[in-house]
TrEMBL record:
Pfam families: Acetyltransf_1 (PF00583)
Protein name: Ribosomal protein S18 acetylase RimI-like enzyme
Domain N-acetyltransferase: 1-136
Organism of provenance: Paenibacillus xylanexedens
Lineage of source species: Bacteria, Bacillati, Bacillota, Bacilli, Bacillales
Lineage: superkingdom: Bacteria
Length: 136
């Protein structure tokens, strides 16, 4: 597996799969180097992406990981999370953050990676959003 920053060439791949971002922001996230593309080196194809930002503009916040169906449960998610955490540590951060809905399996994935519950957000139309943090 190879992890690279997304480029303009990845735009269509991302917008076809990312239903959780205001579409015009994708190009901004790409130019700010806040999206990684995951590659299967043997096939030479994209297998997923990870998008992040900053909570309160100063705490790295992993917004979304997407792994294409045939590649799920193959370690790609874990590898990109560790890659991102290492990058954030190199940039001087000591804590990272993410969230997941209470009805999603992702909460267990993040907890296995050392993330701990830090609170929750309740919106009218969605399940409870669990906030998770990790010291790196």
């Amino acid at each position: 597996m190879k992890i690279e920053y997304a480029t303009e060439a990845d735009y269509d791949y991302i917008i076809e799969r990312d239903r959780h971002i205001h579409q015009p922001l994708v190009k901004t996230k790409i130019s700010e180097k806040e999206v990684f593309i995951l590659w299967d080196e043997e096939e030479g194809s994209r297998v997923g992406w990870m998008r992040y930002g900053y909570f309160w503009d100063n705490l790295p916040f992993m917004n979304m990981i997407w792994i294409d169906e045939p590649y799920r449960n193959g370690g790609y998610g874990k590898k990109v999370v560790h890659h991102w955490e290492n990058l954030m540590k190199q940039q001087g951060f000591d804590t990272v953050m993410t969230s997941t809905q209470s009805d999603e399996h992702a909460q267990h994935f993040y907890r296995k990676l050392g993330y701990v519950d830090a609170g929750a957000l309740l919106l009218d139309t969605q399940p409870l959003e669990i906030m998770l943090i990790k010291k790196i």
